[in-house]
Specification:
The protein is α+β, with helices and mostly antiparallel strands and 77 residues long. It has a single domain, classed as Glutaredoxin (3-Layer(aba) Sandwich), CATH 3.40.30. It has three helices and four strands. α1 crosses α3. The chain is globular.
Amino acid sequence: MKIEILGSGCAKCNKTKGIVEKAVSQSGVEAEVIKVEDFDKIIAYGVMITPAVVVDGEVKVAGKVPSVDDVVKWITQ
């Protein structure tokens, strides 16, 4: 599984990365967590507001920091 955190490196983006890493750890799912700061790649997903979370190519949330529970649901479905 590939999870991408889209964002410029702002505080909310860094918080989102920590939440995703915690969710991956709690769920026991094997996942590669990648931080994407390249605006061309972010826009290619259709994301205009960061932070955003992309799981296996599907945008799950944009413009807000998700909860650990939300991320666990996305990666265990």
